[in-house]
Write a structure and sequence with these properties.
Helix content: 40-55%
Strand content: 5-15%
Number of domains: 2
Radius of gyration: 20 Å
CATH superfamily of the largest domain: Dehydroquinate synthase-like - alpha domain
CATH class of the largest domain: Mainly Alpha
CATH architecture of the largest domain: Up-down Bundle
Shape: globular
Largest sheet: 6 strands, parallel
Strand order of the largest sheet: 1-8-5-4-2-3
CATH topology of the largest domain: Dehydroquinate synthase-like, alpha domain
Order of helices and strands: EHEHHEHEHEEEEHHHHHHHHHH
Structural class: alpha/beta
């Protein structure tokens, strides 16, 4: 398939102070054709309560848009919103929230062919601009489903400053994971007849570099928030251009998926799980992990498995399960002969670091 004729790019990426209060002006500037069109806002109840003034203001700016609260990031909820959009001739969906809300709203917009405007309340992962939604299907099972990326992304720096620091750290983790993901993508291409899409590779590398080499160390600074926003969006666009998640997802993501699927009681965000997974992945790839360890220390990102209740035995089991968690996905794990004493050494090194 020739990707060059198939990908979509957002029309607008606005990262501004108080952007939520003038989101209607931003939309009018970039997508004037949707002005006055019937709109729905998708969020979660606790966010609607916390940001009542902002969300009401956005609703009135978009012609008294109805506000719908999701209760789970599930396939069923996305389909039910899409059904409502089609039946009621709604043309625009605005998603306001974190990853759960944005993935649900994005997929609902994809199947209903509505214009989708993404307004994140935190920068916890690169799903805000990615061509995929991670949705619950049956019970705890989650599936990554392809969909269309947002038409517009509006980031309010004040909202991100107010968000819990853990969510920003999660976004940093998801960005830094590209270091090991890109290695795995090249390895996969060498083992199969597939190609590495150069432009997608360069975008993902730029996303990583912009955060890894950032001079601004204050997570609450507008400069850092602007850099992280753009890095997460670049990651999403790299996946859109590549036509897969390979530029951003390698063995470190397989580790995170193993936690989600086999140890759901372990409470760790997706971004922190991939950050933790990137250190052993680096070692398996025979790259030195010192740079990542030092970077995580600088920003206070805790990659100690013990903090999250991951014992030595669970850690070893996770790496065994990670290899088979996405059948057919070639990564360094396909080449790695696990040695329990090596896994114990890595675990202890991470605990002591």
């Amino acid at each position: 398939m020739n990707q060059h004729t198939r990908f979509n790019l957002p029309i607008c990426l606005a990262v501004e102070e108080d952007a939520f209060f003038h989101s209607d002006e931003i939309v009018r500037r970039y997508i004037p054709e949707i002005t006055g069109q019937k709109t729905i806002i998708v969020s979660e109840q606790f966010l609607i309560d916390i940001y009542q003034e902002k969300i009401s203001d956005i609703s009135s700016d978009f012609g008294g848009a109805e506000i719908v609260a999701i209760t789970s990031a599930s396939f069923d909820q996305a389909v039910s919103i899409a059904k409502k959009v089609c039946i009621e001739d709604i043309k625009v969906i605005i998603g306001i929230g974190g990853g759960r809300v944005l993935d649900t709203a994005k997929y609902a917009a994809h199947i209903s062919k509505a214009v989708y405007i993404c307004m994140p309340t935190s920068l916890s992962n690169d799903s805000l601009a990615s061509p995929f939604s991670v949705l619950e299907t049956e019970g705890m099972t989650r599936k990554t489903i392809a969909c269309k990326i947002p038409t517009a992304i509006i980031v309010d720096t004040n909202m991100i400053i107010a968000a819990p620091v853990g969510q920003t750290l999660s976004g940093i983790g998801d960005t830094i994971a590209k270091h090991t993901a890109l290695f795995d993508w090249k390895l996969c291409a060498a083992k199969t007849s597939s190609n590495v899409e150069d432009f997608a590779y360069a975008l993902a590398r730029m996303s990583y570099d912009s955060v890894y080499h950032c001079d601004e160390k204050d997570l609450k600074s507008r400069v850092f928030i602007r850099i992280l926003s753009r890095a997460l969006v670049m990651g999403g666009l790299a996946m859109e251009i590549a036509g897969s998640s390979r530029p951003c997802s390698g063995s470190e993501h397989l580790f995170a998926h193993a936690i989600e699927e086999y140890y759901p009681r372990i409470k760790i965000s997706h971004g922190l799980a991939v950050a933790m997974g990137s250190i052993p992945a680096c070692i398996f790839q025979q790259q030195t992990p010192e740079g990542l360890i030092s970077f995580f220390h600088t920003y206070g990102l805790d990659f100690n498995p013990q903090t999250y209740g991951i014992t030595e035995d669970i850690f070893a089991d996770l790496w065994l399960k990670a290899r088979n968690v996405r059948p057919g996905r070639i990564s360094i794990l396909s080449e790695t002969e696990y040695d329990r004493s090596q896994l114990n050494d890595i675990y202890n090194r991470m605990v002591e670091s």
